[in-house]
Amino acid sequence: MYSHSSTYYVVTCLATMALLLLSLGIRRHRRLNRPRGPKPWPIIGNLNLIGVHPHRSIHELSKKYGEIMQLKFGSQNVVVGSSVEMAKIFLKTQDLNFVCRPQTAAGKYTTYNNSDMMWAPYGAYWRQTRKMSQMVLFSTKRVESYEYIRVEERNSLLKSIFESVGKVIVLKDLLSTASFNVISRMVLGKRYLDESEDSIVSPDEFKKMLDELFLLNGVFNIGDFIPWIGFMDLQGYVRRMKALSKKFDPFLEHVLDEHNQRRMEEGEKFVATDMVDLLLQIADDPEHDVKIERDGVKAFTQDLLAGGTESSTIIIEWAICEMLKKPETFQKANEELDRVIGKNRWVQEKDMPNLPYIKAIAIEVMRLHPVAPLLSPRRAREDCKVAGYDISQGTRVLVSAWTIMRDPKLWDKPEEFCPERFIGKEIDIKGNDFKLLPFGAGRRMCPGYNLGLKAVEGTLANLLHGFTWTLPNTITRDNLNMEDVFGLSTPKKIPLLTVAQSRLPLDMYHL
Ligand code: HEM
Q1: Fold assignment, 33-509
Q2: Are 400 and 374 in contact (CB under 8 A)?
Q3: Domain residue spans in the chain?
Q4: pLDDT tens for residues 462-498?
Q5: pLDDT, tens digit, for every residue of 219-271?
Q6: Ligand 1 centroid – CA 294 distance (Å)
Q7: Quick one: 7 exposed, middle or buried, by C-beta within 10 A (0-12, 13-18, 19+)?
Q8: Does any ligand 1 atom lie closer than 6 A to the CB of residue 440?
Q9: Rounded to the nearest whole angstrom, what is the distance from the C-alpha of residue 449 to the centroid of ligand 1?
Q10: Least C-beta-crowded within 10 Å: which of 85, 145, 156, 364?
Q11: Which amino acids does the record list as binding heme (predicted)?
């Protein structure tokens, strides 16, 4: 009897508590003022509305639901900001609350469990990676001190193009070899992909690996949003991530082994000469505040190699593509180059302030073809309010730079490639002007913008100075394919085929 009544009492209490919690939950739920958005389906949420080009799907949805919109990807809340005002809130005013990255399969499988800078959660480790990269790679002094490397590799690029004059070339291949050589000499101390070396991976294979890395780090992997079906890997992305990691790892191991060996051989006399040397020193230092393991060194190195190769390559490819569609831009560029540089020397980095049209081409291309149209995803660290709406902790936050940079309220004929729009204007692309965000903004802004910009402007200027560019006979301006592929970067789907002709005196090509 006693036991019966106590059970009754406990059940009654639990039921009352459940009702109370439920009603509180409902009330709390009711009180939450969420941004507008499409009604989610059970299980998939709004994933049915996201097509193969997520930036375009989100752009269309933003037009319908406004500058701040709430979506649901599987069970995950996603908020998208798509105006200057919203970008300013997410990336500046409340940046500290949105400085974290969501946890993804890509971070887990392709960057040694988020040990790199890109996917590292906010905290001491991530801060340390930013500090180190600033110190050893991205400071103005460092970037300038490596100009000789950029000049040497640019000369090799110009020479290879000259050797193929009149023939159809895949521009992207030549560009990415040049970019990779620059970054690998800065980060690893030497070229690692020379065919002649007993290299661990061929240049072609490595380029494919980089493309795959960028693609897989940007894809919408269903398992990230509906974790309980993650094990099925319905899109096959996780399988590809694991396979990719197996290809990168031996290359990175080889790089680290070589560096460690030199360190051992030189003993006391050893002086760190590149970034991997420095990272390994930090990793071995027991006194260092934040411990960086061998995996961290590999992940961080991979980040910089990838970031330094892919972005500038795809921007330059898009630039030549847009110009081929609008040939009068070549004439204007050539006129400026002939007037400022003349025909008897190549463009140097210090010439850039005197080449406003070339600079405007680079900016216009980054506006129309941002490397990261939704920037990189962020995550709310705490519940907060944005523009009067409630954003819950853990919400994934996207800033649609694509929408902002094509907003007809901000840009005249936004879909048109028109470098002239920037002539005579004060322009900031380094995260202070929220209508132009090719490098993002705030604490997670691209740390490599200085280097990236130099690579894009310097290479583009010399490609235009040294050569005229046309399409192969089989392709016309009108049927030139301009489709892109969405990933962590957004390259052309079909690499550009083009034909170069020299436009300077022949002795200029004896580089
Ligand atoms: C023109 C060239 C480049 C463009 C357009 C570009 C663009 C971007 C963008 C849009 C982001 C995301 C920023 C955000 O979410 O707010 C980013 C992040 C990043 N970029 Fe770049 N990037 C370029 C060059 C580079 C270079 C040269 C490197 C390295 C050598 C690099 C390494 C990184 C890294 C590591 C991150 C992640 C930073 C973090 O999460 O803390 N990028 N980049």
Answers
A1: Cytochrome p450 (1.10.630)
A2: yes
A3: 33-509
A4: 999 999 999 999 999 999 999 999 888 899 999 999 9
A5: 889 999 999 999 999 999 999 999 999 999 999 999 999 999 999 999 889 98
A6: 23
A7: exposed
A8: yes
A9: 7
A10: 145
A11: 446
